[in-house]
Amino acid sequence: MRVFSSLVSVVMLAGLTTVHCQVQSASAETHAPLRVGLVGLVHGHVQGFLQQSLHSPEIEIVGIVEPDGELASKYAKQYSFDPRLLSSKLEQMLDRAHPQAVLVYTNTYDHRRVVEICARHGVHVMMEKPLAVSFEDALAIEKAAHVGKIQVLVNYETTWYASNRAAYDLVHENALGEVRKVVVHDGHRGPKEIDVAPEFLVWLTDPKLNGGGALFDFGCYGADLMTWLMDGARPETVTAVTQQIKPDVYPRVDDEATIILTYPTAQAIVQASWNWPFDRKDIEVYGQKGYVITVKRDDIRVRRSGEGAKESREEQVAAKPLPSPYDNSLSYLRAVVVNGMKPDGPSSLDINLTVTEILDAARRSAVSGKTIRLPVSR
Fold first, then answer.
1. Beta strands 315-318 and 299-304, pairing class
2. SS (H, E, C) the chain
């Protein structure tokens, strides 16, 4: 146990040395609240945000956009925010409130429109995963961000898992050898089965507004983590199989999906499901001389080959806690917008362009029944 605890501690400390330096530099900056606007109230993740961060000292909410007046009033009452913050149009809120950044809780199809409008106003954007419903939209978002000189970030719950960072650091310190296979599991019983809000369910199950079903909703996590582990490398091929196991519940979108990604010396299997009996978000990384398996947010299971024919035993250890600003989305957003930190990792636009390219190809593969070979460059 001591061997693996030491290994993980060394790897985590080495991997986060740069982080500590950036945090120390950032701490010297002014810590006035970041002025943010919320765009949309139809994404279920907005409820968690309002419960946990409505009164966070990191931010000041200066405007909220929601065209559905009844829904907007419901949330204003439920979370006790000033109704005067509400607007029905994004342009109106930007002109009136002048936020430094917006947090996007619309359907995925609307991400492109929101970014294009915000880019014209020079306002940075952080949206809930995934980036876009199509690679065409992703490229349009990239263009708008470049022209408007804004940052576009994508928020994944799994970005803030200490276990995922520990796995990443083990890979990048070559503690496992060269990566050969990665298996990612993301799923739950299904949005209807877990009683998501009606305004969330209606677009999650719309192929235009969500891009697909479980394929986009949960497949994006695996595509994001694999692209991050591979330092942004794009796969050579994408193969996907989707099913409608519950067509009576989800008649318009898939509820089960598997994506296989191939690289010159590695393969990834991304499993996305609305059919599992329990919530699950974890990754398995197999290298030439060992493996790491994440256990929820904070632990990892590690096994490495020993000298000669000797094999070590698997050990479960705790991952080191993540330091600010790498421990939550608001600290990270603030570091980028206020302190000028260059976006990197799972939330960065570069990584998420590849994620969307993968998801777009996976959707085409599932429809055609064929493997999609990505172009050498885009």
1. antiparallel
2. CHHHHHHHHHHHHHHCHHHHHHHHHHHCCCCCCEEEEEECCCCCHHHHHHHHHCCCCCEEEEEEECCCHHHHHHHHHHHCCCHHHEECCHHHHHHHHCCCEEEECCCHHHHHHHHHHHHHHCCEEEEECCCCCCHHHHHHHHHHHHHHCCCEEEECHHHHCHHHHHHHHHHHCCCCCCEEEEEEEEECCCCCCCCCCHHHHHHHCCHHHHCCCHHHHCHHHHHHHHHHHCCCCCCCEEEEEEECCCCCCCCCCCCEEEEEEEECCEEEEEEEECCCCCCEEEEEEEECCEEEEEECCCEEEEEEECCCCCECCCEEEECCCCCCCCCCHHHHHHHHHCCCCCCCHHHCHHHHHHHHHHHHHHHHHHHHCCCEECCCCC
Q: pLDDT tens across 340-370, in order? A: 999 999 999 999 999 999 999 999 999 999 9
How far is CA 115 from its chain centroid?
17
Please check the confidence at residue 28 and state whether its pLDDT lies above 50: no
Separation between Cα atoms, residue 216 and residue 362, nearest integer Å: 9
Instruction: For residues 229 and 169, give the distance between their C-alpha atoms in angstroms, rounded to a whole number.
Output: 9
Measuring CA to CA, how many Å separate 128 from each of 62, 107, 160, 335?
Answer: 19, 9, 14, 18
Q: Which residue has the tokens 């330091």?
A: 323
Residue-wise pLDDT tens digits, 327-342:
999 999 999 999 999 9
Q: Which two tokens stand for residue 186?
A: 């993301």
